[in-house]
Amino acid sequence: MLRPPKGRPLVMGILNVTPDSFYGASRSPGPEDAVRRGLSMVEEGADIIDVGGESTRPGSESIPIEEELRRILPVIEQLARRVRLPISVDTYKPEVARRALDAGATILNDVLALRGGDGMPGIASRFDAVVLMHMLGTSPRAMQDAPVYQDVVADILSFFGERLEVFERAGGDLSRVWLDPGIGFGKTVEHNLRILSDLERFKVPGRPLLIGVSRKSFLGRLARPEAPLPPEQRLEGSLAVACRAAQAGAAAVRVHDVGETVRTLEVWRRVQRPVQEGALA
Q1: Pair 160, 134: CB distance under 8 Å
Q2: Which one has a higher pLDDT value, 22 or 31?
Q3: What's this model's pTM, rounded to 2 decimal places?
Q4: C-beta of residue 169 within 8 angstroms of C-beta of residue 122
Q5: How far apart are CA 51 and CA 8, in angstroms?
Q6: For residues 233 and 223, what is the distance between their CA atoms, to the nearest angstrom?
Q7: At residue 141, does pLDDT exceed 90?
């Protein structure tokens, strides 16, 4: 389903069909605009298009299922017909996942790791690939309210073990599971840094690792602690972490800026090994 490895992570383009995602430039006011953005991502070199209809930024509120479906189904249907890349649906709701699958999505990107409702593990088992992400708690609205861990890396790994068991009991094929430690989802800046420094510990054999940090707030704090940068000025931090993810052997990075990330990772790939003079293959 996914393209063969290229010596760098796959690039998953974030396609927000939302009016309120934290990064204003990523918002699509309607299906037509979203489809155009998706086609542009394909031209820029995306390997996967991840379509989402509900913001999961800190403090966000859930929207009705009907509204989420209204936003994403036309986009998934059109992209599935017009492009040859895998289409991912970013949702934690069973009914939305089921309808997206019928519309042509082949990857489920679930920020609640199958905790969003009865039947989700069974529905997830029908997708070609399933991304299980760690979030502290089950609500983006409250996830950043003083998050606490005994050991953030060990706690997340334990969480993954439990969610993998749930998926397998529902008949899911574990070889289809991807893991995402959920950087920024119920974590402090220090938690995020610990995860990034220990990324290699998340490389469970047979479980591809997806990293999503694109333009997140902690990058603005790292770059300028005295006056954190807004989302519009966090591209360089995003690219730096994409290289760190590649170094750690991540299978994919989820990003807003597809072209910039593809070019950065291509340079990263080329400088990892010497080449013969005049050979740029």
Answers
A1: yes
A2: 31
A3: 0.92
A4: no
A5: 22
A6: 10
A7: no
